[in-house]
Structure formats: C-alpha cells, structure tokens
Amino acid sequence: MLLVLLAIGWVPMALMAASLLGSYQSRAVSSRSTELQNQCRILANQLLSYHYLDDPSSELINGELSQLAGMYDGRIIIIDQDFQAIRDTYDLIEDKYVPSEEVIRCFQGQTANQLTPDGFIEIAIPIKESDAETVQGVLLASASTDSIRVNAEALSGNAAVFFLVYGILVTALAILLSHLLVRPVERIRAGLHEISSGHSTEDLAVKSYTETEEISEEFNKIVTQMRVLDESRQEFVSNVSHELKTPLTSMKVLADSLLMQEEAPVELYKEFMGDIAEEIERENKIITDLLSLVKMDKKAATLNIESADINDLLELILKRLRPIASKKNIEMVLESFRPVTAEVDVGRLTLAFTNLVENAIKYNKENGWVHVSLDADHKFFYVKIMDSGMGIPEESLDYIFERFYRVDKSHSNEIDGTGLGLAIAKSAVLVHKGAIKVSSQVGEGTTFSVRIPLNYIA
Ligand code: ADP
User: Fold this and answer.
1) Which of residues 226, 247, 278 is at a domain's end?
2) What is the pLDDT of residue 1?
3) Which domain holds residue 57?
4) Could you count the other beta carbons within 10 Å of the beta carbon of residue 272?
5) Do the Cβ atoms of 88 and 110 come closer than 8 Å?
6) Cβ(392)–Cβ(407) under 8 Å?
C-alpha cells in the first residue's frame, strides 16, 4: 500500500518536471535562434545600404556588428563575393578565404540555421537586395546557448528543492494514509490471531469497511459452525462411551454377583452366562453400527456407485428379514409400480433400507404388516416403508434421526436397538443427494418415505 501511494505521489510529478524542463530548454533555444536570425537579416540589409561589402571601414556598422556579437556572446563573420572574410568580430580570420560548404550553399541563396553539439546556434544568411538574384556576400553568425543552460540549471535547482519538500510531504502522507487504510486489515489479522491462539472467544467485529465487516461476519459464521461441530463431536464421544459402557457394567454386575456367592448353583451360572452373552451381543451390535456410521460419514469420494436394479435390491432385503418378521407373524409385501434401475452405492443403500424395514418389523405388533413400495419418475425413485406398528410420538419425530436417540427409553429394554439405525439410514440417503421423511401416528403405524435421484449427482 505504501509503495503504491508513493508511486502515485511521485511518478506523475517527476514526469511532469522532466518534460517541463526539457521543453523550456528547447523552446528557449529555438526562440533565441529566430531572434538572432531576424537581427542578422536587418543587419544584412544595413550592410547593403552602407555598401559595407565594398568598404568595410564603416565605424557604425562595425560597432553594430560588435554589439550584436557581444549581445549574443557569439561571433559574426562577413564574407564577400570572393569567399574572403572581410570582417570577423573575433579578428581571427580577416582576409582569409572561407570556402566552406555552408558558405557555398548560402551563395546559392540558401539560409542555414543549426545547433552544434557544443551548444552553439549557427546562422548563415545571404546578403543580397531583396528583389535581386545575385548574392553579394554572406553573414555568418554564431551565438552561445550558455545562458539558457545556466537558466535551466537554476530552474533544476529550484525544482530539486521543491521536490525535496514535496517528497517529504508525499512520503509522510503516504505513510500516514497507508497506515490508516491498512489498519482495519491489520485489526482483522490480530483478531484472527487472538482467536486462533485461543486467547479470545469473542466474535470478530471490524466494521471499518463494508468488506471487513463482511469478512468478520463470514468468519464468525465459520467459527460458530466449528463450535457446533466440536460440541456435537464431544456429545457423540460421550454418548458412544456411555452406550459402550452400559453392557460392560451389566456384565460386571452379573460376573461379580456370581463371584460373590460361595457355591452358586449351575443353573444360576447358566442363566447369568446367558445374560452376559446377550450383553456381549449388544456391545457387538453397537460397535458394528458405529463402524457403519463412520463409514457412511466418509466423503462421497469413497462411494462405490454402480447401476443397480432397485426392485431386486428391495426384494433381497425383504427375503433376508422375512424370518424375523415371521416370528411375530408379520406380513411383508413389496409393491413395485415399475422396474427401476438407478446409479447407487448398493452396499450403503442396502444398509439404509435394511434398517428401515428392520425397524418396521421391530416396532410392530403381533400379526401386523409391513408394506414396502417402489415407484419412480424421470428424475427420482421413491421408496415407502409403511408399518402397522406402535408409531412415534409427534414430539420425538424431530429427533429420531439423531445418533443414539431412542423414543422411549423404557421400551428400549424390551426392544433391542442402539439408536443408530436411522442415523445410518439418513446419512446413506443424504450421500446420494436424496431425502428422507417420516410420518407417524401413535398406535397406528409409521411411514418412512425415501427419495433418491436415478442418476448419481457428484
Ligand atoms: P434403534 O436401534 O433403537 O432402532 P433407530 O435409530 O433405528 O434406533 O431408531 C430410533 C428410534 O426411533 C427407535 O428407538 C424407535 O423408538 C423409533 N423408531 C424407528 N423406527 C420406528 C418405527 N418404524 N416405528 C416406531 N418407532 C420407530
């Protein structure tokens, strides 16, 4: 930010100063050379009217020549028709012949005007009557541009002082501005650091800019989500520990009571060992369910999607569960409206539907029924699992998909379960981007409706 502000302050100013100084110098040189040229033209006319080329002794003209040369800190040479220098204000080449290219061209009527590399303006003007063709002589004049250079240097000096002051001000302003502009970002960084290092649990609130306010809000949302996740993870761990401990506690009690008796009868041993075996079975079931749940929670990348016949899948599930249903003399019907083939993870979906049908049998009454239906449209297939069971009270409907939730803890003693079956079913449905709903009437029965896309959506 500081560098950007410094560049904004400095670069245009430096470019402007460089271009102004450059243009001052070139304009000053060009105006001086025009001025000199005009003066020389006037002088050339005077030379003619005083017949100076025939008699270069005119005091007046010589005085003027010296004055003009002095004024421009330069030199004037007058050359006659024979290429002989008749007057040189430096008195160096008088009477000498000057057959230079420049002079020859001037005798042909051309005026010359140039700037030499060492900084001299050089002018060559033909001396002739305005309406005549013949050139009678040549006036060579040179003028120094030293004074222009000196002026430009003085100007540069002033500009340097101005720049120094301007630079100090711009730099100070840039430091101040960059500090002010970056401060909210710095506050966000500090706030994030406080939170990430665990020193603060307060919400981030940097309201200086709309953007920082939005960043704060989004960050607070993420933190809230993470806290909720963390809480639910802790709750899950404590539930798991509790559920896993319950069978172990029972087993310990059973074993201890046997050990405490000096001579317990064999029947008692058998009975207690039977109970212990049941508890082991329960522990085993919880662990199996937990492992299934963990597998379900893994990301979609681990899905094993294949094209499957859903009618066959449901038929197989019902066939496997029929022996359990027949114990309570429960009638099981599969009603299929059309053949359905869909892209699914067969393993996960089988587990989900098995849990739902198993529940429909488990929480059913003697001689009841379980009705499974399959239908589809062009996008989804729909599976309904209806039963004539005990139903779920309305206040529990919101919780039954939660891990370890069981409707009435008292009937959990009668009916075996871990409270994980529906959580497993729901996460299997969600991983297929599907939906699961429940409707129930206590004493009459329950219906679970599942909707899953025919084509897997990644
Ligand atoms: P569980 O191992 O206890 O069956 P689930 O997660 O499968 O655990 O079910 C959670 C609770 O929802 C069950 O304990 C039961 O009270 C209730 N429930 C599930 N399905 C049915 C159903 N078809 N009829 C009545 N209650 C049900």
Assistant:
1) 278
2) 87
3) 2-151
4) 17
5) no
6) yes
Task: Answer yes or no: do 134 and 217 share one domain.
Answer: no
Give, for ligand 1, the residue of 284, 358, 390, 400 to mutate: max count of ligand atoms closer than 8 Å to Cβ: 400
Condensed to tens digits (0 to 9), the pLDDT of residues 393-404 reads: 999 999 999 888
Q: Which structure tokens are listed for 135?
A: 């050139």
Looking at the structure, do residues 350 and 437 belong to the same domain, yes or no? Answer: yes
Nearest-CA neighbor of 353 among 282, 456, 422? 422
Beta strands in 128-264 (DSSP E): 137-144
Using the mean position of ligand 1's atoms as its centre, give its distance from the Cα of residue 420 in Å: 9
Single out the residue of 438, 458, 434 nearest to residue 449, CA to CA: 438
Which residue has the CA at smallest separation from atom 2 of ligand 1? 417
One domain for residues 8 and 121: yes
Name the domain count of the chain: 3
Average pLDDT over residues 245-269: 90
Distances (CA, A) of 226 to 223, 229, 233, 298, 424: 5, 5, 10, 18, 22
By alpha-carbon position, which residue is closest to atom 13 of ligand 1? 406
How far does residue 334's CA lie from ligand 1's centre (Å)?
21
Supply the pTM of this predicted model. Answer: 0.56
* Sheet of strand 137-144: strand arrangement: 85-88, 75-80, 137-144, 120-127, 112-115
Determine the distance separating the centroid of ligand 1 and the alpha carbon of 317, expressed in angstroms.
18
Say if 173 falls within a structural domain.
no
Other beta carbons within 10 angstroms of residue 357's beta carbon come to 25
Tell me which DSSP letter residue 203 carries: P
Residue range 363-392: average pLDDT?
Answer: 96
Compute the distance between CA of residue 321 and CA of residue 421 in angstroms, rounded to an integer: 15
